Amino acid sequence: MIRLEHIHRYFQVGEQTVHALNDINVTIEKGEYVSVMGPSGSGKSTLLNVIALLDQPSSGRYLLNDQPVTQLDDDELAKIRRENIGFVFQFFHLIPRLSAAENIEMPMILAGVAVKERKQRVQEALASVSLQDRADHRPDQLSGGQLQRVAIARAMIMRPEILLADEPTGNLDSKSGKEIIELLEGLNRQGVTLMIITHDQNLGDRARRKIRIVDGQIG
Amino acid sequence: MRYADLLSLSYRTVISHKLRSSLTALGLIIGIAAVVILTSIGRGIHTFVLAEFTQFGTNLISVHPGKTTTFGVSGASISTVRPLVIADVVSLSKVENIIAASPMVQGNARIEAGEKQRRTNVLGVGAAVPEIWKIKVVNGRFLPKEESNPRAFAVLGNKLATELFGTASPLGRRIRIGSDRFRVVGVMEKKGQMIGFDMDDTIYIPAAKALELFDRESLMEIHLLYKSNTAVERVEKAIKRSLIARHGREDFTLVTQNQMLKKLDSILNILTLAVAALGSISLLVGSVGILTIMTIAVSERISEIGLLRAVGAERRTIFQLFLCEALALSAAGGLCGVLLGITIVQILDAALPALPVELAWTYIVAAFMVSLLIGIAAGVAPAMKAARLEPLEALRAE
């Protein structure tokens, strides 16, 4: 469960102070399907980064599963991200010199999971995104849709309860985009909390709960 | 993160840029190979020179006139140094534990034998020289044991005998040294050069005759051979006691072969150290290569660092990853350098037998350790830079 209370986030840009998040109060229950929409510069990415623990709010309280996470140090945050949050990015962010299987394996390597278990879980993950026959391909040998499927498999490999997707279809053609969304929605049906940031109205409308953000405030 | 995974990830990264990694390692390879080769030559010369000096044996002591100390009145104003004379040799040869003693006067003179003439090195010595210097007579005999009033006999070095008499036997022939007449009684075996001094182009005559020939009053040195199972300090003490009793004071200096070897050894060690230092300059250049490549690698992979941080890598892990990469590069470079160096040394040894080479293992191990240290030193700064990146900013870099 994600609970944000009176979250503010200021940025110093030159002389000016930008108020990117202005008193955000949101609670997202486990298993919800939420879309965050809003124009460019509205603060939706900042909101995602705060929820993802990649950015710290200037003030306010953030409880993740009833645990306050605003006062944690860097290494503790890394551990929480590793175990609780999966990321899917617009630009995939795969490591170019590693194969699809190795990219999926990476969070488990960082977590120190045993080799035997890793190999087995990677096989299952590849099967769940229908890429068994692409395991040894490097990112430059895969299409955009396949890359994003690898990224989703990587995001889910540590079995996090939250999946954050930042414009997951922004770099894909409409057919691959549709496949990716169906994959993500399938994961949501299995109980994963899914939060998608998007410009795309049609995509945003598919979510059961829609958050609209304008000028750093929830509209 | 497990260490095995750390190693395999670093290995994967180094391997993925084959050309770039090998060029980077090449700097180090050349540096390490240079250290291996240069120190092998240094060590080879070291061994060679020491062997040259020990071919006369190690239980030798020489006595030189004058006391080398830096206090007291200058010897130039009041000379109280009593010269070393042949009687000193006779008395020293009776000292406990001394096997043999020989005077030594050296000079250069013209030798005439029939029609032939040659300038050569003249050694005025005693009968004990073959025993002290471990050198044999191949033809005839050496100078007889006659301390005072010796007969005018001469023994020729091997090369000198050939030059003067060709294949004919020189035994019994008369020769002229300077203006004095001598009879040849023996020829020495071939001994070869000793650091530029040709032992074969030499003539041996009795010391008393050499003093007359060169118009000297005193000996240049006295050479003593002592029993090899005796402590050198005890022998030195006995020699001093005997000579002080004769001269009234310590106006001489003893040099043992061991002291000389020790001095030589330290000089030659400095030589090896100096060439190692020369080689290290190229090591330094190699390390700059690694620093450059690691700095580039960090800036190329900022977004990858951001991703790793986002999926749960601690700062420590990022630091380890990049440091390990620099280490992998330097260890590979160091290992190849050592192998290349050893190969070249072996080729040199086979191709140029005259050049003394000997693998200096201490330096080889040290060079490899230094290459690892270089990896760490060159890797730390870029790795720290990578670890300090904020995940969010790093992710945005594209």
From TrEMBL, chain A:
Xref: SUPFAM superfamilies: P-loop containing nucleoside triphosphate hydrolases
Domain called ABC transporter: residue spans: 2-218
EC main group: hydrolase
GO (cellular component) term, any one: transmembrane transporter complex
The protein's Enzyme Commission number: 3.6.3.28
PANTHER family assigned to the protein according to its UniProt record, in alphabetical order: ABC TRANSPORTER ABCH.1, IMPORT ATP-BINDING PROTEIN
Family the entry assigns: Belongs to the ABC transporter superfamily. Macrolide exporter (TC 3.A.1.122) family.
Protein name (record): Phosphonate-transporting ATPase
Organism: Methylobacter tundripaludum (strain ATCC BAA-1195 / DSM 17260 / SV96)
UniProtKB/TrEMBL annotation, chain B:
Keyword Ribonucleoprotein: no
Domain ABC3 transporter permease C-terminal: start-end pairs: 278-391
Location of the protein in the cell: Cell membrane
Entry's Gene Ontology cellular component terms: plasma membrane
Domain MacB-like periplasmic core: 21-241
InterPro entries with a match to the protein in the record: ABC3_permease_C (IPR003838), MacB_PCD (IPR025857), Macrolide_Exporter_MacB (IPR050250)
Membership in a protein family: Belongs to the ABC-4 integral membrane protein family.
Protein name in the entry: ABC transport system permease protein
Species, as recorded: Methylobacter tundripaludum (strain ATCC BAA-1195 / DSM 17260 / SV96)
